[in-house]
Amino acid sequence: MPMTSRALTLRRVAILGFGWLFVVLGVLGLFLPFLQGVLFLLVGLYLLSLESARARLFRQKLLNRYPRLAQAMDHARAFIHRLRERVFGRGERG
After folding, report:
1. Do residues 47 and 22 touch, judged by C-beta distance below 8 A?
2. Of residues 38, 29, 59, 34, the one with CA closest to residue 47
3. Cα torsion 50, 55, 61, 64: sign
4. Is residue 62 situated within a structural domain?
5. Which of 16, 24, 29, 79 could be disulfide-bonded to 35 (CB atoms 3.0-4.6 Å)?
6. Exposed, middle or buried, 16 (CB in 10 Å: 0-12/13-18/19+)?
7. Which distant-in-sequence residues (6+ apart) come within 8 Å of 76 by Cβ?
8. What's the structural domain count of the chain?
9. pTM
């Protein structure tokens, strides 16, 4: 079933909100020893790149310049997919 424009707007706001939340947690994690700063930054960047062309371009430039970062981004992407399955259920995609 297609999503309504209200549902799409709510989805976009939620993704952007969580993306920025993870970025803020990542910045804090760079200075606090009990948070995984880089992981949170990568998850936040991945979420932001789902809805923002500028973040998507920035992510691609980072991955091209730092190939080892691609492996960390894959771990962040897997984390997001597991989180999405846990929150929305296994059968639902979107």
Report:
1. yes
2. 59
3. negative
4. yes
5. 29
6. middle
7. 39, 42, 43, 45, 46
8. 1
9. 0.63
SS3 89: coil
| 80: Cβ contacts below 8 Å, ≥ 6 apart | 43, 46, 47
Question: For the CA atoms of 57, 58, 63, 69, what is the dihedral angle to 10 degrees?
Answer: -150
| Boundaries of domain holding 22 | 5-88
Rounded-to-integer distance, Cα 10 and Cα 72, Å: 29
Residue 36 lies in a domain: yes
In a domain, 94, yes or no: no
Residues 15-72 have pLDDT tens digits of 889 999 999 998 998 888 887 888 888 888 888 888 888 888 888 888 888 878 778 7
